[in-house]
Amino acid sequence: MDPILRMLEENAYAKPATIGKMLNLTEEEVIARIRKFEEDKIILGYRAIIDDERAVSELVKGVIEVKLAPERGGGFNRLAARIAKFSEVTSCFLMSGSYDLLLIVEGKTLRQVATFVSEKLATLEGVLSTATHFMLKTYKEQGVLMQAETPDEKLKVSP
Prior knowledge:
With about 160 residues, the protein is α+β, with helices and mostly antiparallel strands. The protein has 5 helices and 6 strands. α2 crosses α3 (about 25-40). The longest helix has 13 residues, at about 25-40.
């Protein structure tokens, strides 16, 4: 992966001048490369990682395992693209293993998520089964620990 992309993935708020100094590039070179990544749809967006507990978010988040019937000539792609367009779905991944898609979903209430599953998702032709798991607490998201470690909480490493 390009070093600029790696640095932005770690900290999307990094200034081009800082990235340039670290990579021995000019600020203008970094800006041009970032602009090109955006134009080429390599960089699709920038997001903050929010601690829902501290932000007092009332959103209900769930993970849904979905088994699909593959379509002739298209496999899972057409149905996965259709499912990914639902507003409740924040992420959609094709998986190996015992199920085909992994969805991350959000709703204002438990009932809203349940209604999405029972009325929108499970009724789609080609969806064979679903298994819904609700997220109760987030400890780490996208490589970021949600609560800072205190010195006595660190894991002890023994030889």
